[in-house]
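Hi everyone,

Forwarding the result from last night's run.
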Amino acid sequence: MVEEVRSICTIENPLIRNLRITECYHRLSATFAQRVGPGANWCAFATWASRQAGCTIRGEDLIEHLSPRTPRLWRAVLRMGVLDPQTPAGWIVKHVHTPFDAVERASASVAKGNLKVFEEIGEVFARWLDDSSYVPSQPLLRDAFEHYRLAAEASSANERARWMVIANIECGLHEQRRLQPEIEGAMTAPLWLFKNLLKDLVCEIVSQGFMTLKLPGDRRLRLGDDLDAPAPACFEGMEREPLLAQFETAGIGGVGAENWADLQQRMRYISRLFRCFHEDAALFQPPFSVDQCETMRSGQLPRGVL
């Protein structure tokens, strides 16, 4: 799958590229699970994080927040190319200051981060699936795939789950460190005029108001709120392990991230998310229909909910 990952990375249209990335993560997660064993691997979570990123890249989450009645109209505007600088409508949005400025800025930041992570971690998963002796050069990813190997060789389901979660968190930490500039850029976009004066306050507002993760089954997690899903018993006491313990004191109580731009707070939430949803088989559901996949592979924006 390495060549497919690299081919997807060359797609210039960020909307189509994101859809292809999301669908590829889904297939990577399913194939990886066959090799390593049951339980949600990093790609299973990445599928839905990338799908959520697509909402921001297409400007849907901000538009829905401002006016819940306009998503269908907004999708029609998207098909006109309003966020594609190569179209007349997109050129106007890019070069003329309009109310779309915040949408455009957030879209560009998230699209850049979506591509950056897929280029690095998506290709690593694809290379490992092509050759299980492959060892990543990046330290955290090298550790992660050693722990995935231990998960595959584990003698019990509990041992496998703990090694897999540790590997997921190591992939997540590598990802979140690399994404820091894009996350700050996306979160300050809605109030970019005040970015230099009120950066921390703006990030906190956006954490509470905009940052959500939609999972299969119409579940929506607000990343500024505590997780209400219990972690499986096999992870009891795991927060004391050094990798996880470094995040446990981030923020002010609870699990939710008061400021999603803060790396430590993000990782505290993500490490809990990986544990709480590790046994959720729904994460392996396809994010798009067969018809939508065919349409995106032809370079067109599919119809329907994405």
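The mean pLDDT is 83.

Cheers,
N.
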